[in-house]
């Protein structure tokens, strides 16, 4: 059995978000999380079976790290990216549906997406999940990879921005903090960064006039997830997640983003090298938090050897994100909200 290294004092919080392997934490995971005290836990379909089971898993994490207020994340965008199983939860419509409605009826689309994400927030908050890695602000073009096109909020900066504003409002009303992604823009990718490293050849002027706009429009949000993409006109060597030029010159300066920057999954094949090297590179580039999703214990243990205590500017940004995630949810009648959403969508389905 893999032993957990004695890495840090028990009172600290580290700059990593970990996944876990199954429906409950294993003894080895509990030992690791107790030692490292990750800032958050991210859940996937392998971790989600029923309401009681999910709340028990969240309770396991709280007990392991010794805090009642914990950051629990999920990707619940709707459509293909819906982690909660349909046996107990609705599968929300794909973001592409609202994008299609927006073309001819923008007000209906904005109202509908607000209601949709208000319902998503209700589902999540009830389970103890308080961060949703959504909305995706990437704008696809002709030839973009399906990993973007079948999840996009639209094909124009204005439409993506407007729908994202309403999706975020719906989540925040339910006490769930959003994560805008994938900065500074994944829309031009022609390959899936889960499997290969995309290269974008567009000029900086083209990117600034199109791809960057939704991120600029939402630059005051508390959290942003990076893109594992090489932008030839900006840094032709390093993917954005591990590029100091992308993090500092583009996301921090050009986009004026002052919130917490988390990596996309550090284990994706767009990045190369040992997992601990990737983590070091991301933090050195200026990311605040490393995201590791697979739940593979051996990788998490190796990554744990290089994570750091949250401190300074990163700690302040983390506290801002926690303020949103720990907000109280307003009371709603989910049946009534679903009926209102269905009435709008009826005309477009």
From TrEMBL:
Any coiled-coil regions, as ranges: none
SUPFAM superfamilies: (Trans)glycosidases
Catalysed reactions, semicolon-separated: Hydrolysis of terminal non-reducing N-acetyl-D-hexosamine residues in N-acetyl-beta-D-hexosaminides
InterPro entries: GH, Glyco_hydro_3_AS, Glyco_hydro_3_N, Glyco_hydro_3_N_sf, NagZ_Beta-hexosaminidase
Keywords (A to Z) from UniProt: Glycosidase, Hydrolase
Domain Glycoside hydrolase family 3 N-terminal, chain residue ranges per copy: 40-311
GO terms, biological process: carbohydrate metabolic process; peptidoglycan turnover
GO molecular function: beta-N-acetylhexosaminidase activity
Signal peptide: none
Matches recorded under Pfam families: Glyco_hydro_3 (PF00933)
The EC number(s) this enzyme carries: 3.2.1.52
Family to which the UniProt record says this protein belongs: Belongs to the glycosyl hydrolase 3 family.
Full protein name: beta-N-acetylhexosaminidase
